[in-house]
Amino acid sequence: MDTSATGASLRVRGRTALARRIGIDARALAAFRICLGFLLLIDLLLRSRNLVVSYTNAGVLPRSVLEAQYPSMSQLSIHTLSGAVWFQVVQFIIAGLFAVSLLLGYRTRLSTVVSFVLLVSLQFRNPTLLNSGGSLLWRLGNLPPAGRTLVGRFPPR
Questions:
Q1: Longest C-alpha distance within the chain, in Å?
Q2: What is the pLDDT of residues 108-157, one digit of tens each?
Q3: Rg from Cα positions in the chain
Q4: Contacts by residues 16-19 (CB-CB < 8 Å, ≥ 24 positions apart)
Q5: 65 vs 33, 120, 124, 128, 135, CA distance in Å?
């Protein structure tokens, strides 16, 4: 009996068994991706109502105060590059475009990473607005890439 063929057969059977037990169905992952994109859009829309007050220098937390009170957070936020209203609007539009891209499944990995970076940046721009919903979005962003199964194909071919 050929040991290399037996070893290959065992690897295939083991991978198939592992995929059945811990693999994620692509349809469930797609539904999760759609919900995550929709949740990001809703979050952006709700935050945009108070954009000037919450995220610009004319609001409750100018960049100088943010840098004094939260120096590490201010250095990690893209939103602190400018305190102008137009800059924050552009950041919100970019985040919204990537959330729609995630919702539609276009360039899923890129959309997931950029959406996560922009969400963290937005939350670091005004940390006084953080609540448990923000930490939930962080945890959801740390899950496996929205668009792939964890182990191989499910169901296997």
A1: 78
A2: 889 999 998 999 899 888 888 877 666 666 666 555 554 444 434 434 44
A3: 21
A4: 16/152, 16/156, 18/151, 18/152, 19/149, 19/151, 19/152, 19/153, 19/154, 19/156
A5: 36, 19, 13, 12, 23
- 44, two tokens: 């952006």
Structure tokens at 146: 């929205």
Instruction: Provide the pLDDT confidence category of residue 61 given band limits of 50, 70 and 90.
Output: confident
Q: How far apart are CA 56 and CA 47, in angstroms?
A: 13
Average pLDDT, the chain: 81
Residues 26-61: b if buried by 16+ CB within 10 A, e if exposed? eeebeebbeebbebbbebbeebbeebeebbbbebeb
